[in-house]
Design brief:
Elements (H helix, E strand, L loop, with lengths): L8 H4 L2 H8 L3 E5 L4 E3 L7 E7 L2 E5 L7 E6 L4 E2 L13 E4 L3 E7 H10 L1 H30 L9
Antiparallel strand pairs: 1-8, 2-7, 3-6, 3-8, 4-5, 4-7
Helix pairs in contact: 3-4
Length: about 150
């Protein structure tokens, strides 16, 4: 799956803002099968994938978790960190070995609050990711549970 312009970090954030964010990043690795976060847990960090894949899933009572989307190179993993109450809305699992840049959410929120010239582009970037993910989730859930053909884009 290719990243769309709205979810690919390199294309979505102006270079000077991405550079500022990268100053507070740390490199991390996750083996395949690692759950990065669980729906309802505290969203205190987020990632930009360097290599590997992460699937986003949704708990469905009485069933296995539903995979909603697969994220890959340069994509943002996690948006719940930006919006109160800072709890994960979905779950995330490394479906291959993952190398990523990890960001402390509180530190990034503080940077954005102190500097609106950074905060506005970050909020627009994360907002575009949320919009994309909600549309993807809608289509996926309609494909799984709706009448035939209802998951097609409008």
């Amino acid at each position: 799956m290719n990243a769309s312009p709205t979810t690919d970090t390199v294309r979505a954030l102006p270079a000077e803002h991405l550079e500022r964010l990268m100053r507070v990043a740390r490199e991390v690795s996750f083996p395949q099968g690692t759950r990065l976060f669980k729906e309802g847990g505290r969203a205190d960090r987020f990632w930009i994938i360097r290599s590997g894949t992460v699937t986003l899933d949704l708990h469905v009572p009485g069933r296995r978790a539903v995979v909603l989307e697969t994220l890959t190179h340069n994509q943002l993993v996690g948006w719940s960190w930006l919006f109160t109450p800072h709890l994960w809305h979905l779950g995330g699992v490394a479906t291959s070995p993952v190398r990523a840049y990890e960001f402390d959410a509180a530190a990034v929120r503080t940077m954005c609050q102190k500097d609106p010239a950074l905060g506005a582009p970050v909020a627009l970037w994360v907002g575009s990711v949320v919009t994309h993910r909600l549309q993807t989730m809608r289509n996926r859930l309609l494909d799984l549970y709706g009448p035939y053909g209802s998951g097609n884009s409008l």
